[in-house]
Here is the input.
Amino acid sequence: DDRRERNNNRRSQHGPVSGGDIISEQRGAIISETRGGFIGIGTDQRIALMQRYLALFPAASIELLLADREFIGAQWMDFLNENNIPFAIRLKEDMTLNLANGTTWSFRTLLRRKRVGGTAIWEGRLNGTTGATSQPLRIAAKRLADKQVLIVATNQPEARQALNLYRRRWGIECLFGDAKTRGLNLEDTRIKNPRKLDCLLVVVTLAIIWAYRCATRVMGMKAIPRKTHGRRQKSWFRLGFDSLRQWIINDQPKAASAWSDAAPIRLLIPLHSR
Here is the structure.
């Protein structure tokens, strides 16, 4: 759809990162940590993964780290703060916040009378299983049309902006779909050896990047046309992936040039201007 196509266009040049996958804005590098065939999501694994990244690239290469409710914790957020890594992390509704006036409230209580569409802003220390964050965080929350609550914690000055930027995480969900059920079927592998899985993830990463470059080769600066129901004819990945497979069979030089030649730079909206 339109959101997917827009996010696919941005991934190669912007730096939101999520979960067990770290995407550098400047280098497009992806670092993954496997544990017996599964992505490691514990606090220690996340910190170790980020330390691997920081050993290769400066923290300034990350515009914003995005994470879902699986990737919370005071120790994790303190680590990000101490290493000057900006983040926007979604929180659970039953978590609690220590406000500056000394009171402690759950987000469920704070949002009890909040209407759909309105945004609430707080600042305080977030409580986790091992204690509260050492530094106050800014929190923005909104009740959505489906009655769910979107709560985002950030170490950046503008909590409302972090709430808006969190929507970019949809692009990362699309990336997972491209690698799995809607594309390369990564989950069908029977490989269990972590080192071999790491190699497979590298191959999948290169294939996805190649598909995106093929789509850019086909479309240039144009957008994918819409059907009568308003959705795009194809996603950016599907267009590129279909083109890549066709070129590999029928026109290998074209497939190779899509990888090696300079691609047109599509117009983007910087994170800081949103």
In short: Residues 194-219 form the longest helix (26 residues). The chain has a mean pLDDT of 81.
